[in-house]
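Each letter names a residue; structure tokens follow underneath. Both lines appear below:
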Amino acid sequence: MSALHREFKAVIFDMDGVIVNSEPLHEVAFLETFDELGYGDTHGIRFADYLGRSDRAVWNAFIDRHQPRQSMEELTDLKESRLIHVLRKTEPLFPDAPRIIDALSQRYPLAVASGSVHRVIAEVLKLRDLRRFFRAVVSAEDVKQGKPAPDIFLRTAMLLGVQPEECCVIEDTTAGVEAARAARMPVIAITNTYPAHELHRADLVVSDYSEIEKVLLRPQ
């Protein structure tokens, strides 16, 4: 039986690149923060290497390279504040995301498992009152290792009270796909951030949300 033809007990959403079109906004917020710190031309960060990973991974690389006087907490706060300002201003939800979240919530317990911090996740889930649909919200702050390690998905399954293999994950990055696979969770990848061929290790790669609905809302 295909991993996506079983009956699931929960669905776990990534946030950046799945619910909200924020991957480009994260990069802008980082670049503006680097510029403010005086490293606009010398930061040395290749953002493509960190898609789907936590902000902490970016800051660890930056700190290792530059040894700034600011603490990790201060650096994180600077970047988060910039990002939240843009999120409030632009509300960049993917147009079909609220609809599919609502539809799936009528059949499954839902959760968010995001590499973002809780402060940013809360701002996104305020948009269109999305927080009401999710029984659990897990951040990279809640686990020891971020994606592509499985920690965040395993913790989410525990909070939902289901076995990992009973969850279906919706992701958009290679790091997220690998994290789901490491957690033994079937994963659907949507091509919002990476092209289909780079997401080939997902159980299913789709280009729009209606394809996810066909799989997860098929008659039981």
In short: Residues 23-90 form one domain. Helices lie at 23-37, 55-66, 72-90, 97-105, 118-126, 151-160, 174-182, 209-216. The chain has two domains: 6-21+93-216, 23-90.
